[in-house]
Write a structure and sequence with these properties.
The complex is a heterotrimer of chains A (337), B (293) and C (263).
Chain A lengths: L5 H14 L6 H26 L7 H19 L3 H25 L3 H20 L1 H4 L5 E2 L12 H24 L2 H11 L1 H6 L4 H27 L1 E2 L6 H14 L4 H17 L4 H18 L3 H9 L18 H5 L9
Antiparallel strand pairs in A: 1-2
Chain B lengths: L1 H31 L6 H18 L4 H24 L7 H23 L6 E2 L9 E3 L2 E3 L1 H23 L1 H11 L1 H6 L4 H23 L4 E2 L3 H15 L5 H21 L4 H16 L14
Antiparallel strand pairs in B: 1-4, 2-3
Helix pairs in contact in B: 1-5, 1-8, 1-9, 1-10, 2-3, 2-4, 2-8, 2-9, 3-8, 5-6, 5-8, 6-8, 9-10, 9-11, 10-11
Chain C lengths: L5 E10 L2 E11 L4 E5 L6 H9 L6 E6 L2 E2 L5 H6 L2 E3 L12 H8 L8 H5 L3 H20 L15 H13 L5 E5 L7 H18 L2 E5 L3 H7 L2 E6 L2 E6 L1 H5 L2 H18 L1
Parallel strand pairs in C: 3-8, 3-9, 6-7, 7-8
Antiparallel strand pairs in C: 1-2, 1-4, 4-5, 9-10
Helix pairs in contact in C: 3-5, 3-6, 5-6
Classes of the chains: A mainly alpha (337), B mainly alpha (293), C alpha/beta (263).
Chain lengths: 337, 293, 263
């Protein structure tokens, strides 16, 4: 494993993250927590869009459902955060599974439309079902307590987020290079061929939607606890574009890239916090520029420049030292069956 | 009867505007097989351009209208050059996300230029906003003017598509791009023309709509998704289908708003489209078509 | 078990009033290499799609190993042991050759969501075995050295052979090959011929070749079925089919007509 290999870079980031509360101020800690939450969103979306190839626009809505689920279960039913949070994630997962149903009948642009319509419908419910969701003004959630641990709420929440994100990054990395990850990529690269190998489209599309719903739901629960406040505007189209920007900047179909994409997007978002119009211009332009000039995002760049960043779909990975002669040989004169 | 006639007329009026937005989406999709996700923002931006020309610079409405349509055409061409032409060999996801990027750039630019205190700009009415009673039926002259304008735009477009050389070439390319290339049509130009024409129709819709309502930078998306829904309802490649789809959505919205609750105006289109896509993904008029892979 | 491995009974398909397949009945025996030929528009591709579960037949039945597979999903039919390859290369773009082959093992591996995500021992063992099998399958087609290349970096002919290996690795009972010889040069054709026989003899897999290259079909097939305008017009040994007047007419007649309209 090369010194600057994928695993080492991500480990260094993790160590930096673990030490962060000791040397940052409260605003910086908030931003760090935001990054961790966005890592979860980015990975969930990348599994759905990047690996399974489903052009879905409902990630911001599922993020919102996680946040509203976690918040409302506390407010309406008096559940403690520790119960409301996993239940919120379960709700988001179920919704993810439910919206995969149209994906079985339609794909491509039609799927984009049906998920967009679903996202708008969700926001409408947040806004107008006032007796439950408290409408446009949103609602405050009870503060989370980490007693008896000797940590303040922001620090405790940050470590909770970091631990969950670390685990979920590892699980995602394992998953995408397993037979399930291969099935996702097969569905993306050729539905008919995938089916001819016995891969059930229904099952794997639903699974990808469910996983992305789960990651977004976890992220939403953490986000609601960070802000102690939930309102519809946090889960709008701009949020959707931020998610898309994370995977495009980090690298479509790359778990490591998803992590880096979350860093880049949150950093830029905070840098431009003042003006909404400028944020929109910046993130729109980033999407266009990366798609045009850096289609594989940061991950593709690292793959080219850094030995050891290879992200195989299978476990073993390419051989450590590929034979340069074999690689140079023209493909046409190879292989005698 | 009074309520129903009022709702139907306003539904048909908004529906005609959705139909125009849908027509633009269909024109682009027929030619290129993709959807321009910045279509709503092209609509919104052209509306603001019209506002600047009409209210800002004091030009008469009939002069501001064609100028804004020209601006829309230029924006459509720019979208093609930036987000479609370089990506013709890329996958659908990249193409769609690139147009999403364009959409947000336009939105941000509109907010920076025109976004005032509350981000809302009022466009002066072109005729009296007061309702008039025609026997049992209540009519708002403004709506009739908008509806008439929308019909004129549709007729002009139909004439362009059927009678002009450019329109016929667009049709030929949509039917069979390979054959069109063989007879000497430069398909890349047709794609550009389609993006431009689609945006010009959206611009016309925006200028027609402006006197009826307020302008704000976020309005493009709602019109895009309703236009997209209308286009899918009509089968995504059918021009008459797009018009029918637009009118259907307009009327459903108006009835849902009038008889259930005004908040249902916004959401009924989304519900309709989710149901249509689950039950009958090919739309009401459309025939199933091999999707672009 | 006796009886045909794959049987079509009166399979009929029409699109918008045009009958594409008209009462096709045919039996393919175990261990057979069957050729399926016919002029363009004869219905070969539709037949393939019906067998694979992509188009439902409007009438008739398809039996795999005595069990009806009509109305089942393509993935379920594949899981019952029906493999296929495609006219155009369908290797997964985002994978290496080895990964493509491991994907072919999908239906024979079992690891679920949690086993894979938590990297359980059983999953690791299964994965190692899958990789070993995939490498062995590459050796079988003599392409072991390409394991870690992206599939799409290879020549068209190589991609087609890898696709065959990807299907075979799933241990199908019967494989439908859709014009596998397209793009192969003449000297490659002889090698390909040998590969097909080895697949049958060493793996015990029944093969159905849908093919335009008549020479390959006549050399390698035990029996040949000829389709024309949606009907079976001949079915027999290559020699018998070659001399069948109906077949000659179906091919030559078409050619003559074509010449006539061209001039």
């Amino acid at each position: 494993m090369a010194l600057f290999g994928r695993r080492n870079i991500l480990l260094a980031l993790l160590l930096l993250g673990a030490a962060a509360p000791f040397f940052v101020n409260s605003y910086q800690l908030f931003v760090a927590n935001l990054i961790v939450v966005f890592v979860l969103l980015s990975i969930g979306l990348n599994i759905l869009v990047g690996y399974a190839g489903q052009l879905a626009f409902a990630n911001a809505a599922m993020f919102g459902i996680g946040a509203y689920g976690t918040g409302l279960l506390q407010v309406h039913f008096g559940l403690p955060f520790w119960m409301a949070f996993p239940l919120g994630a379960v709700i988001a997962t179920s919704v993810g599974l439910a919206i995969s149903l149209p994906a079985l009948r339609v794909s491509g642009l039609y799927l984009a439309l049906s998920t967009l319509a679903f996202a708008e419908f969700t926001r409408w419910v947040f806004l107008h079902w006032e007796s439950v969701t408290f409408g446009a003004g949103g609602f405050k959630t009870p503060p989370v307590s980490f007693e008896p641990l000797p940590v303040s709420k922001p620090v405790g929440l940050y470590y909770l987020s970091l631990i969950l994100a670390t685990v979920l990054v590892v699980l995602a990395q394992n998953l995408v290079r397993s037979r399930i990850g291969r099935a996702f990529v097969a569905v993306r690269d050729g539905e008919v061929a995938a089916e001819s190998l016995g891969i059930d489209l229904l099952r794997y599309k639903a699974l990808a939607f469910g996983i992305s719903g789960f990651y977004a739901g976890i992220a939403g629960g953490l986000y609601s606890a960070m802000l102690n406040y939930v309102s519809p505007e946090g889960y709008d189209l701009f949020q959707m574009v931020l998610h898309k920007a994370m995977i495009v900047v980090g690298g479509i179909a790359s778990i490591g890239g998803s992590v880096l994409g979350a860093f880049a997007v949150v950093a830029l978002l905070e840098g431009l916090r003042e003006v909404k119009g400028v944020q929109e211009i910046a993130f729109g332009a980033i999407l266009v520029v990366f798609i045009l000039f850096m289609p594989g995002g940061i991950a593709a760049f690292l793959r080219r420049k850094v030995r050891g960043w290879d992200e195989p779909v299978h476990r073993a990975g390419p051989p450590p030292n590929p034979d340069p002669a074999a690689a140079a040989r023209p493909a046409s004169e190879a292989a005698r069956p | 009867m009074l309520l129903l006639s009022y709702l139907l007329l306003s539904g048909v009026t908004t529906g005609a505007l959705y139909a125009l937005v849908a027509l633009g989406i269909v024109v682009v999709n027929k030619a290129t097989g993709v959807i321009n996700f910045a279509h709503g923002e092209l609509f919104m931006f052209s509306g603001f351009v019209a506002w600047s020309l009409h209210v800002g610079a004091g030009l008469a409405y009939p002069i501001a209208l064609p100028l804004a349509v020209a601006a829309g055409f230029a924006l459509g061409v720019a979208t093609d050059r930036i987000a479609f032409r370089p990506l013709m060999k890329a996958d659908v996801i990249s193409l769609v996300l690139a147009t999403v990027g364009i959409a947000f750039v336009l939105r941000g630019v509109a907010r920076v230029i025109w976004g005032g205190k509350a981000d809302y700009l009022a466009f002066p009415p072109i005729t009296s906003p007061e309702p008039v009673m025609l026997g049992e039926i209540m009519v708002i002259p403004q709506q009739l003017a908008v509806l008439g304008g929308a019909i004129v735009v549709m007729l002009i477009f139909a004439a362009f598509f059927r009678l002009t050389r450019a329109g016929k070439m667009m049709q030929a390319t949509a039917d069979n791009a390979k054959a069109a290339t063989l007879v000497g049509i430069r398909t890349e130009r047709i794609y550009t023309l389609s993006f431009g024409t689609g945006a010009a129709i959206a611009a016309a819709a925006a200028v027609l709509m402006a006197p009826l309502t307020l302008l704000y930078p976020d309005m493009g998306f709602a019109f895009f998704i309703k236009g997209f829904a209308a286009a899918v309802l009509g089968g995504l490649t059918s021009l008459p289908g797009a018009v029918l789809g637009g009118l259907t959505i307009g009327v459903i919205e108006a009835l849902a708003g009038g008889y259930i609750h005004s908040s249902f105006i916004e959401v009924s289109a989304f519900v309709v489209i989710m149901i249509v896509l689950i039950v009958r993904p090919t739309g009401l008029l459309g025939v199933s078509r091999v999707r672009r892979v | 078990m006796s009886g045909p491995l794959l049987a079509l009974r009166d399979v009929t398909v029409g699109f918008g009033g045009v009958t594409v397949l008209d009462g096709i009945t045919l039996d393919v025996g175990r261990g057979e290499i069957r050729g399926l030929i016919g002029p363009n528009g004869a219905g070969k591709t539709t037949l393939l799609n019906v067998v694979c579960g992509i188009h439902p037949p409007h009438r008739g039945d398809v039996l795999l190993d005595g069990k009806s597979i009509v109305g089942r999903k393509p993935s379920a039919i594949a899981a019952q042991g029906l493999g296929r390859t495609f006219q155009t290369s369908q290797l997964f773009r985002g994978m290496t050759v080895l990964e493509n082959l491991m994907t072919g093992l999908h239906r024979r591996t079992r690891t679920g969501l949690l086993g894979a995500a938590f990297n359980l021992g059983s999953y690791r063992a299964e994965e190692e075995q899958a990789e070993a099998e995939a490498r062995k399958a590459l050796e079988f087609i003599g392409m072991a050295e390409f394991a870690d290349r992206p599939g799409t970096a290879l020549s068209f002919g190589q991609q087609r052979v890898i696709e065959i290996a990807r299907t075979l690795i799933g241990d199908p009972k019967v494989v439908l090959l859709d014009e596998p010889a397209v793009g192969l040069s003449l000297n490659r054709l002889a090698e390909f011929d040998r590969l097909l026989r080895r697949i049958r003899d060493e793996k015990g897999v029944t093969l159905i070749l849908i093919e335009h290259v008549i020479r390959l079909v006549m050399d390698v097939c035990d029996r040949v079925t000829v389709l024309s305008t949606g009907r079976v017009i001949a079915d027999g040994t290559p020699d018998a089919v070659r001399n069948d007047p109906d077949v000659i007419e179906a091919y030559l007649g078409k050619e003559l007509r074509a010449r006539h309209t061209a001039s």
